[in-house]
Structure formats: C-alpha cells, structure tokens
Design goal:
Homodimer. Its main location: cytoplasm. With 607 residues, the chain is of the alpha/beta class. The chain is built from 21 helices and 27 strands. The radius of gyration is 25 Å and the shape is globular. The structure holds fructose -6-phosphate. Fructose -6-phosphate binds next to helix 9 and helix 18. The site of fructose -6-phosphate has 15 residues, from helix 9 and helix 18.
Amino acid sequence: MCGIIGIIGKDDVAERLVEGLRRLEYRGYDSAGVATIHDGAIERRRAEGKLANLVKELDRDPLPGTTGIAHTRWATHGAPTTNNAHPHATKEVALVHNGIIENFKALREELTARGRVFDSETDTEVVAHLVSELVEQGISPKDAVAQVLPRLHGAFALAILFRSSPDMLIGARLGSPLVVGYGDGETYLGSDALALAPLTQRIAYLEEGDWVIVTAGGAEIFDRDNNPVERPITISGVTGELISKGNHRHYMLKEIYEQPVVVAQTLRSYLRRMEDQVSLPVPDFDLGAIRRVTIVACGTSYYAGMVAKYWFEQFARVPVDIDVASEFRYRAPVMEDGGLMIVISQSGETADTLAALRHARSEGQKIAAVVNVPTSTMAREADLLLPTHAGPEIGVASTKAFTCQLAVLAAFAANLARAKGRLDGKAEKELVRHLAEAPAALNAALAYDESIEAMAHLVAGARDVLYLGRGPDYPLALEGALKLKEISYIHAEGYAAGEMKHGPIALIDDKVPVIVLAPSGPLFEKTVSNMQEVQARGGKVVLISDYDGVQAAGEGCIATITMPKVHPLIAPMVYAVPVQLLAYHVAVAKGTDVDQPRNLAKSVTVE
Ligand code: F6R
C-alpha cells in the first residue's frame, strides 16, 4: 500500500527520496511524487503509473533542496492520476499521507465554505489545507499540527513539510505505521524500516497517536495528549542486500526458493530437536487456560489459519472459530473467558486484522500474533508474539510467509495439545520428527519446478480454473486459486472436492482445467472419487500427488505433478510449492507483472 519517506539531509535529497520509494515499490502503488523546499518555496514533481515516470519528470525538471518528502500512492479516494498523487500542497505546506481520513467530506465542505480551493479528489488534501490555514494565520507549524490531528478521524501516517521551516519535518501516526530513522547529521521518516535501510539502521517506531518533529539533529516525539515521550531506538537489521532478487527473475520466484531455508529458520524457534519437544519463544504463557481459539486473518494468511484449525482441533481438541478479518466484528461474535484470538499476518499491519485484534482485546480475549514483521503493530499489541522468520517478503503474492505461518501454527497447536494433556511424549516426538522433515521435503518439491514450467501452458490459455482439495488440502485449493488469479488474472476458484457435485460441477467442460490436490493419506480415495466425477464429465484434470498417488490415479489426467511422499501433517506446506510455482509460471507465460500485480497492495492498511 502507500509508502512514505522523508529526509532532512545535508545535500540535495530528491535522488535519495526516489531510491527510498523504489524500496517501497513492493507495497503496490499507482502514482508517485516528491516535494522539496528550494529557494524559499515548496516544489513538487508527481506522476501517475510507475516510478520510471516520476524519474523522467525529475530528469526533465530536477528538484533541488535538502529537505523533502516522497510518496507512492495506492488509490483509495480519487483515481490514480497525477493530480491525485501526493504530495498535496499549498503555498505553505506539503504533505504525504497513508491511510484514510474518514471525515474528509465534512472537513472539505467546511474548508470550501471558508474559500479554500481544492486541486484533487483525495481525502488527504483536507489535511494540507487545515494545517496551511493555521500556518497562514501565523500559528507555528508545531501548534498547527497539534490542533489539526485531533480533528482527523480514520487512519493516517503523515509527513509534512513547511515552507517557513525548511529544516524541519513533522510526522504523525494513527493506525498506519511510521518510523523515525536517525542518521549522521541527518534524520528520516519512513513508512517502514525497509525504506530507510540504505540510509540508517537506527530506527524508532512511533506508537499509536504519536507525532514527531524531525530536524537534522534528531527528533522530538509527542504522544496523542501532546506529552513529550521517548521511543527506543532499535537497530533494524534490515539491509539493502536482503531485498535484491539474487539470481532470480522475480522476487516471487526467489521467495518460493527460499522456503526450505526460512521454514527451517522458523522451526528452529519452535522445536527443541535434542529433546524431541515443541517449544514456544515465550515459555511462560499460560496455554492450559485456553478454552477456545478464534483465528482471524486475511487472504493467504487466512488460508494458513484454515489449515491450522484442523491441527488445533485434531491435536488439542480445542474448538476453533475462524473468520476473515473484514467480517469478524460485524457478526457480533460471542467471546467467552478463556478465549485466545490468533491473528495471522505477514505484515502485522493489515487494517482489518488489527481492528479484529483490538475488538477481541476489548472483549477480554488473550491475543497471539503470528507475524513476519516483529516490530509491526500487531506484534507490539499481542500478549504472545509468535514470529515467522521468513525475512522481508517483497513479491506482492505471499509465498514464503505462508509456509512459515504453517510451520509456526503446527508447532503452536502441538504446544497447546501438550498443555492440555492431549499429547504424550511419544506423540510429541513423532510430531517433531515430521515437522523437522519439512525443509527437506520443500526442497524436494522445488525440484519439480521445470516440469511445472513445462505444463504451465495447459493453464495459461484458460479463462477459468478450478482447484480441488479435501481436509487441510481444501485451504490449499483456495490458496492455489488465489495465487493464480492475483498474478495471472485468470479467474480461479478453490472448492472442497466433495462440494463439487452440489453446484460447481455444472461449470465443468473441456476448457476448464481442474487442479486436484491429493496427497496420499486418509482423504486420498475420496478426493480421487471426486476427481473422477469431474473426468466423467469431460473435465481436464491436473493431478498433484506423490508417486503412489499419481500411479494410482494419474491415468486420464492432462498432466500430473509428482510431489515427494510426506506425512499428512506437513503436506499443506509441501503442496504450497507446486501451487505457487504453477501460478508463477502461468503468470510469466502470460507476461503479467508478477511481483506487482495490477490493483494489489502488499500491506493493506485501510479497511
Ligand atoms: C495473497 C496475499 C494477500 C495477503 C493479505 C493479508 O498472496 O498476499 O492475500 O495474504 O493481504 O496480508 P497480511 O498477511 O500482511 O495480513
């Protein structure tokens, strides 16, 4: 989603601002812009589309100035045009904004009635006018911002530039993250530490309601009641190196290939291999008191939660509710004492998931957060932080975060089972052994990359594709369909294989490829029966199974993809690989923008 960077520098900053934006590109955006102060005036350059267009603007008309702000915009209010691109500016003030100002209509009417003229259709521009209006009356930038912030409803991260104070920026956050970076005689603002990685590793994370005055010498931070506060400076550990594509053509492919290593890395925090035991990074959390689990997440993270529901119920015999985060609060969920909410989120910032977390907390639930960004808002607000160690995920389509989430959730379910007296030493040892096999099995699954590439054309020409699975492979079918639609733009649906004959089977004809996920195991026979129902109606099946499964049921399929034979516990992790690779190769065959698919954002910080 939108990205922010601000620099108070020693030299001209435009080039470094654009470099920062480049590092934020992965979040998804459709226009971009930069503003600096030069010769006592605010100047800006903006462009719709990719950053290359902004760079052309800057080449044509360079932007000097040692203090500046920049933004990548993912359109919410108003089309992705140059006029709607940030920074929004008046003569006195320029600002960039992530989030949504929910009361912007009322504010805009109020400002228009006072004669202010708007240039854009955005919600953001009201903030520029509100601050500017006060500054024009002679009120200091600091007091102007302090007066305006309480008037804004919704979610925001802001970085504001003032013509009258060229050596200062003001930042603010509520609902959308913002960090301060401390350099050598320079200070920065960024929507995440990644944007600032080439500039500094010394980062302070603003808390909800904080705002900050940034100068070259440092930062003065205030809480929502305007009291000066200290926020610790941490070393982010994010380096420029981490986000190179290496030898891969796309970030997505690199991240698919990283899975054996990052899953192993993640499991290391949750397994004690020497003792054959599962463990948690926070050992003193009282798991025995948990009577019910509610899982809430969005998109791919939600599908990881769907798989985990099987594990929690099977191992720990604890009832599990699961909701898409955007729906959770609106069905008046009943939450009782002894309830644990598990939020699952790669970014740890997804607005709907965060709102669900806060709602559950207000209803007395304990909160566990399975997140990939340990400094994220969810990580900071949870009682029990369960990090995935996937490293930065840059491809918009989530891959390695998913398999790492599964690894954490399987280990967590086992911990809960043990705390509930449902897992004896022998069963625990077995479980640890199977989980520990996951990295090697993921590696073995990657070996089929070329054969998946070779059959991708069978899917690339389709208009519609179905994915079928049963049990924990049903969420995998949903995940496969999501991956395919988001990066190849082919319409795809995932179904529980047994549900086909209750309606969707009417869609079957020889133009709809049906991808069947059927690892050997207790549900294999039933899945194959459903697959045969499809074949009997002329459906073209691609079977993904292990060698035994392909031998038993591969005949009559248009293609088969052979996976290593694995224990059912780790099958959802291993079968994620072929669905990711299939979507990837189909997208490459279709020539789409794999890493930044149209209309999508990486971290969805608006509801
Ligand atoms: C799909 C995808 C999205 C995210 C979803 C939740 O490939 O990436 O569906 O899974 O937006 O994001 P997080 O996990 O950051 O909360």
